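In response to the reviewer comment on reproducibility (Comment 2.3), we provide here a single inverse folding case reported in full, input and output, so that an independent group could reproduce the run without further information from us. The structure tokens appear first.
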């Protein structure tokens, strides 16, 4: 296939993806929210409740991060760090992991992360949201919440894996003829 024909075919696929995203937004708007508990999290300053993480926003995104030992979660967080200030103009955002607050703080400082982190260590939060595996390990993803009076509603969530929509690096690699070609993230290179 010549370059022009291939480029046109790829553009058609991208339009199809955009159409599917619109269908996903329409479906999401029709989903009945799930009432959740006002969980407690640990921070270096003490405990904080889920309801307090909203700050002045009506919406809250909570990333289910597997912790400082996960290269893929670290890759995602490194990438997110650059758009963090933009996201905060629309919604509250935190990263939750099973690491202790001290371990989170040390790791975040070593990476230059600017976003807020909370520890769900010792709680059922990740498991209740579906981000604990059947083997007892953690699973990565995101849950989105909305405040509705005194209720906290989970309005959406998405599991994460290499190549998903939530880490742009994979999409850059998709532009290479061999794709990622077996590449995988590391905690340091």
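Designed residues, in position order:
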């Amino acid at each position: 296939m010549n370059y022009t024909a291939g480029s046109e075919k790829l553009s058609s696929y991208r339009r199809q993806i955009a159409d599917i995203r619109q269908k996903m937004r329409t479906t999401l708007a029709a989903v009945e929210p799930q009432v959740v508990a006002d969980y407690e999290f640990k921070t270096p300053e003490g405990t904080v409740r889920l309801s307090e993480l909203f700050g002045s926003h009506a919406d809250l995104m909570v990333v289910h991060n597997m912790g400082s030992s996960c290269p893929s979660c670290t890759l995602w967080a490194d990438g997110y760090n650059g758009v963090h200030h933009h996201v905060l103009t629309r919604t509250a955002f935190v990263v939750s992991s099973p690491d202790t607050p001290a371990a989170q703080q040390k790791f975040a400082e070593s990476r230059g992360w600017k976003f807020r982190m909370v520890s769900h260590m010792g709680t059922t939060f990740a498991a209740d949201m579906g981000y604990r595996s059947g083997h007892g390990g953690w699973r990565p993803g995101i849950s989105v919440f909305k405040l509705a009076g005194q209720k906290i509603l989970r309005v959406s969530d998405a599991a994460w894996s290499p190549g998903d929509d939530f880490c742009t690096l994979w999409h850059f690699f998709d532009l290479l003829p061999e794709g990622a070609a077996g590449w995988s993230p590391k905690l340091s290179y």
